[in-house]
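How a chain folds remains the central question behind the approach discussed here. This step matters because it turns folding into a mapping between discrete strings. The sequence in question and its structure tokens are set out directly beneath this paragraph.
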Amino acid sequence: MSGTQILDTLLAITQVLQADQERELDRRGLTTTRTHLLWILFHGGPATQVQLAEAIAVTPRNVTALVDALESTGFARREPHPTDRRAVLVHLTERGLSIMETMNAEHTALGADLIEGLDEETVRTAQRALDHVRARLEELIAAHEERLHDEEAAR
């Protein structure tokens, strides 16, 4: 098996997962970025908009628009920060919590379904291989970005 075959398989998996995710989020009235923000609140609890902007790597202005949209659709709410009068904390609403609990359960179930029929050693080997591929991809991207930066600086 070649690296090209593995890359093609990873790309095909990415397309399948992305299409399914978009379909499911659209059905729920959500986008990928809004869901990412809800996921952070679900797993980390209430957060300031500055913390959320840092967590999802967007500008504070962008996170304000995201929280506005989540607030207007009933997924999140803002409350005054208990110790910082200048800040607000973003919380999940009951609707937001309910949908995130459902999505978390679906996430867990899909993970289990994906490895159904594989023995424990195969799962461990696959996880190690995927971890290696991910780390290697991150290294290659960082090196590529550095080369591009160096080329631009040389101009």
Residues 25 and 31 are 6 Å apart (CA to CA). The first strand starts at residue 47 and ends at 48.
